[in-house]
Amino acid sequence: MRDFQGLIEEATTADVSGWDFGWLDGRATEERPPWGYARQLADRLPRAEAALDLDTGGGEIIAGVPELPSRMVVTEGWQPNVERARRLLEPRGVEVVPVEQGAPLPFADGAFDLVSSRHPVAPAWGEIARVLRSGGTYFAQHVGPASAYELIEFFLGPLPREDLDRDPHREAAAARAAGLEVVALRTVRCRMELFDVGAVVYLLRKCVWWVPGFSVERYRDRLAELDARIREHGPFVAHSSRTLFEAVKG
Fold this sequence. Notes:
The protein is built from nine helices and eight strands. The protein has 250 residues and is of the alpha/beta class. The longest helix is centred in the last third of the chain and has 14 residues, at 220-233.
């Protein structure tokens, strides 16, 4: 393993745009949920007439689908990801639409029979229900409650458990309030292993909401402590949390 400073320098100069975690190959692992979201989405998309993928990141999930519907639209709010998605998807006829987080969706009522999202930031249930056709489906994989909290709390200290973000039952209640019928809701926790401190820096630069205001300078002491811990005891273990979510508009 490289020395602490070398790992830090490598991770701070790595490209963190898009939603591809290939940089972590050999440096971190994460179990996958058992339901195979990307495979299920690839099965559903060819049967749709018009589909919308929200918070698409760099478009990696949609780019991996062999057959797309006649109208395929994706939205993304972060400009570097918008440009990456355009490069990946526009050659296949996909519409890439920049939409700021929390802004109304710039689509007509009932424009889509399938709306999807892998790890949406904050599902706007009213807008999702509005752009779905009657009988249309929202199919998504959400981040679940207390995801990666072991790592987050290493930097921030203990966090309250009584008010966890991304509670699937609260999300289901919000979906129902918007007029959707929830037909599938399943949450799992998946083991993560981080093999060096560079992997940690890369993740915290990419998932900026985990440790708000993260910088190497601000957390250098904790990073050095974590580096020593990994060298002595092996990988840092955390657990991601994922929810499979499916809802239908009546």
